[in-house]
Please model this.
Amino acid sequence: MKKTFKIIIGFIIGIGIIFLSKEVYGASATITSSSNNITTEQTATITVNVQQTETWHLMLSSNGGELTGQTNEADAYGEEKNATALTAYFKATSPGTYTISLSGQIAGSDLKTENISGVSTIITVTSPYTPPPSTDPEPPVVSEPNFTSVNQTVYATTEVNVRSSYSTSSGSIGSLQEGDSVTRTGIGDNGWSRVSYNGSTGYIFSQYLTTTAPTVDNEDDNEEDNPVKSSNNYLKSLTVNNGTLSPNFNPRTTSYTVVVEDDLEEITISAEPEDEKATVSGAGTIQLEEGNTTARIEVVAENGSTNTYTIHIRKESAEEIIQVGIKSLKIQGVTVDNKTEDISFMPDFKTEVTEYTCNVSNQITKLLITAEPNEEGMTIEILGNENLQMGENVITILVKSEDGQEIYTYQIIVTKGEVAPTSRYGFI
Model:
């Protein structure tokens, strides 16, 4: 009997030793990188995680580059944890292959120390992509040229860049292929044309533009070649005989709000196309309903493409007309390294003023805009404040009612680039 008892006790002790051994050697550490392929302009985040570990003293090292935040030690005080033990950041100014290695000690709940070795991650660093230099010939540049205002549909005679200013040293905001059309708004005495391009103002060297539409070969000798029809489906002007469009009219802005007094029964809308070959429908005298009325003006280009402008007309008492909108507005510019800087225009912001302009440096990539409506239940939607391009950018702030209807609109025209600052309604 005693012999049997001793065997049972020995078996239980053996099981306990096996269990404790698993606890001791269960502690481990791993290393990961947010990216194993970065450029010399980027930073990789290095993360070290521990599993079933109570205490640790860990350190990261690299065979080059710059590594920050690479050491840490902690004690979980009797509790084995799965946790992030260390976060570091790596970058390198020279292309190459770099090894980030983990060393140190970890221990489980019995505090038996294990050395860490052979745990690492590889990061490959390359140079950022640099586009090839422009092949545009450098035309003569005249400082502060004079532009004669025109309204013409012109066509590219070759592939050409659309510039943010009247120099090939300025940034490109897009390009035209041979035969593409664009609206020319000015002809400069320095050899450049000012054009309206994707809602922004751009510049193209005039020798690459023509007012003659290209022809399309029908590949049928029995038919004459037909000229390319204009795709211009924008309005040149849009007005109402009561109230005020918000924001102010811009050919590339298609949504507007008008607030009128609640006893008004009708409103007259006038619209004129940019291209005389385009047709306009939906304008004229509109009968107003109680509450909100929506008017849609459709522009059909010569080639059949359409563009619709929407006017939301809202009736309110005379006392309420100027009360709805934004009561406060704050703007910060975000630079390429994610730093922010205030764009000061307060306290000149006014609820009833719906259009503003400002200039920002070419380091600004987007605007952080905080707008607060002056009535409960209303919401704010901001469009166009990211991925700012060189030249002119249009930002729209929509104030919406609880049912999602657009009832008030603000517009900010942001010019990005090395230009002298201007001030309008408080923006700088």
In short: The first strand starts at residue 28 and ends at 33. The first helix runs from residue 2 to 25.
